[in-house]
């Protein structure tokens, strides 16, 4: 596809960068449904969006396997059973803008707000079954990586896009890693990876490679910019890329894999009946400590926390939607609303998290500043 002719996949997205195309939805619209419709799924790209022919496009499996394999889409569908997994996809840079504003420091990258997340019913084939068909036999003496690449277009910082996950994650029967070809009951769209993309539930979005054409079992991580010199949470004192290079921090820091426990206030409505109240809605995202168990919301800077009602959660990998009605009839006008998530293992979302150069994995309390309020006023919020 010629970048000069590239158009917006959806007019409901807020475009933050034209070339390559990067855009996100408004959070209030995002949380209005459990499964994110196509027009509200964020677009994150390091290259122009690709329009590929499924009749000729192939994905290969190789490296430390007994049988190198190569498949077209129709062959994969014929040979392997179709499976489904509901999983939230979140960009590592979600809430980057919030990090920069709270820390009053510049962050490197697209200034994402809080809509770089979606919840989708993915369908495709089990990565574990694909690798078993290729004859993978993980050794007991050393860990291996599953390297995934897309060579269909030059990216902004490299000639191709490549990354990896631990092979153990791909081979875990409960890991639910799939080679996806459908989303929400229909084929993947070009902007979301048609005909193939990797789905790695629980892992950050950069590992979910779109337009994937290469899957390699290796004892080395890929030598690609986006894996070796990007998407790493560098120490707070590393303030520039020059410092990162001179201090060898890119090589000393492991790639970000897991999403952090997180939650966001998506919308606040002022309600007049039955009593003056705030109707607050949002989403929460699991971390490595298990699915979200509770979301709490405060309108008095943490003096009183209200337990939100969970309106949607599905399985181990979905996002969590929540809402709560907070009585504000005492006469004190709240200036902000905060939220925090608690997971199954008792982990609590922190009030704040450290600044890092790339603005990754920010997970401080979700917040809505009511002094800049633009929501509904005076509505009847009887539940």
From TrEMBL:
Pfam families noted in UniProt: Mo-co_dimer (PF03404), Oxidored_molyb (PF00174)
Domain Oxidoreductase molybdopterin-binding, residue spans: 46-226
Record bears the keyword GTP-binding: no
A GO term for molecular function: sulfite oxidase activity
A GO-annotated cellular component: mitochondrion
Residues of the Moybdenum cofactor oxidoreductase dimerisation domain: 265-361
GO biological process: sulfur compound metabolic process
Keywords: Metal-binding, Molybdenum, Oxidoreductase
Cofactors: Mo-molybdopterin
Matches recorded under PANTHER family: SULFITE OXIDASE, MITOCHONDRIAL, SULFITE REDUCTASE
Protein name: Molybdopterin binding oxidoreductase
Native species: Neolentinus lepideus HHB14362 ss-1
């Amino acid at each position: 596809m010629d970048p000069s002719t590239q158009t917006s996949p959806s007019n409901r997205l807020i475009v933050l960068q034209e070339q390559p195309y990067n855009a996100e939805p408004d959070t209030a619209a995002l949380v209005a449904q459990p499964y994110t419709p196509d027009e509200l799924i964020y677009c994150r790209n390091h290259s122009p969006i690709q329009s590929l022919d499924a009749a000729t496009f192939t994905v290969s499996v190789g490296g430390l396997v007994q049988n190198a394999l190569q498949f077209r889409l129709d062959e994969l569908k014929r040979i392997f059973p179709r499976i489904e997994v509901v999983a939230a996809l979140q960009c590592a840079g979600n809430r980057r803008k919030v990090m920069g504003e709270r820390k009053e420091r510049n962050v490197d990258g697209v200034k994402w707000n809080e809509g770089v997340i979606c919840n989708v019913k993915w369908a495709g084939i089990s990565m574990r079954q694909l690798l078993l068909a290729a004859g993978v036999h993980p050794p007991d003496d050393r860990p291996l990586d599953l390297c995934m690449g897309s060579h269909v277009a030059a990216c902004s910082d490299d000639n191709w896009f490549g990354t990896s996950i631990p092979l153990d994650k791909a081979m875990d029967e409960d890991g639910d890693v799939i080679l996806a070809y459908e989303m929400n009951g229909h084929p993947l769209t070009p902007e979301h990876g048609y005909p193939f993309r990797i789905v790695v539930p629980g892992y950050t979005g950069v590992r979910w490679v779109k337009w994937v054409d290469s899957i390699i079992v290796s004892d080395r991580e890929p030598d690609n910019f986006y894996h070796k010199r990007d998407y790493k949470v560098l120490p707070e004192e590393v303030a520039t890329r020059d410092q990162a290079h001179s201090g060898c921090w890119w090589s000393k820091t492991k790639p970000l894999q897991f999403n952090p426990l997180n939650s966001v206030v998506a919308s606040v409505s002022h309600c007049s009946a039955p009593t003056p109240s705030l109707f607050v809605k949002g989403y929460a995202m699991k971390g490595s400590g298990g699915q979200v168990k509770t979301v709490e919301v405060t309108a008095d800077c943490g003096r009183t926390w209200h337990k939100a009602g969970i309106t949607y959660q599905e399985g181990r990998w979905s996002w969590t939607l929540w809402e709560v009605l907070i009585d504000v009839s005492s006469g004190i006008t709240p200036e902000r609303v905060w939220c925090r998530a608690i997971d199954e293992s008792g982990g609590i979302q922190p009030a704040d998290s450290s600044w890092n150069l790339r603005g990754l994995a920010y997970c401080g309390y979700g917040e809505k500043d009511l002094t800049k309020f633009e929501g509904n006023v005076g509505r009847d919020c009887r539940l």
